[in-house]
């Protein structure tokens, strides 16, 4: 994961800069893209887990093998797709000597002159990743042992979380300045608090799906915030993106 995401974000910034795309467009579309993957994955695997041929020991279904096989096939397709993206590289956009003549984005906002809030993105996303890791690590066991929930229902709940996260990222493509204002950031945090409480108290699939969707809105906002403030730095964006992935990795360890 760490070998994929940082280079891809730097590549994405270079491609979109050459194409005169605003940085918020790149960040929002990036958040949308990987969030859709996180949404479709549990949804498909939840269905596949309940299919397959029965195994002799304990009559457990072999659906988990099918889920991993589909995942491996998807990974192969991604690898082929990355190779075919080579033609999108613009050497002139990646050339440090050509930075002064690089085309300006069409949004009319020079984020390079704004405050450097990468540190706040790391702090906020660190907390957010811990929370989402708690949900992804603890909720499945709670759903099985206490709520007696089917795999497909769990998959649908996680689908609701990640698809809301994806839609939030897509909407935030049109962002301009909320990333530098305290009230919108606090409002997203409040949504996260309500959603986390919902996971703790709701027991019905509908209530849990609503909590998951709210948490997806919160997650979409802090992931957008994290990536945006890393990419806005005119010099250290690659270094900041690497720190982003470290923050996500550490949060993913601490949360469970």
What does this structure look like?
The chain has 256 residues and is mainly α. The protein contains nine helices and no strands. It has helices spanning 5-18, 23-48, 63-84, 91-94, 118-145, 151-171, 182-201, 205-231, 237-254. Helix 1 (5-18) runs antiparallel to helix 9 (237-254), helix 2 (23-48) runs antiparallel to helix 8 and helix 5 runs parallel beside helix 9.
Summed up, what is this model?
70% of the residues lie in helices and 0% in strands.
Structural class: mainly alpha
Radius of gyration: 20 Å
Low-confidence spans: pLDDT under 50, at least 5 residues? Answer: 93-104
Range of strand content: under 5%
User: Helical region count?
Assistant: 9
Q: How many DSSP-defined strands? A: 0
Report the biggest beta sheet as strand number plus sense, adding barrel if it closes: none
Shape: globular
**What is the terminal separation in angstroms?**
18 Å
Order of helices and strands: HHHHHHHHH
The pLDDT mean sits at 84
Helix content: over 70%
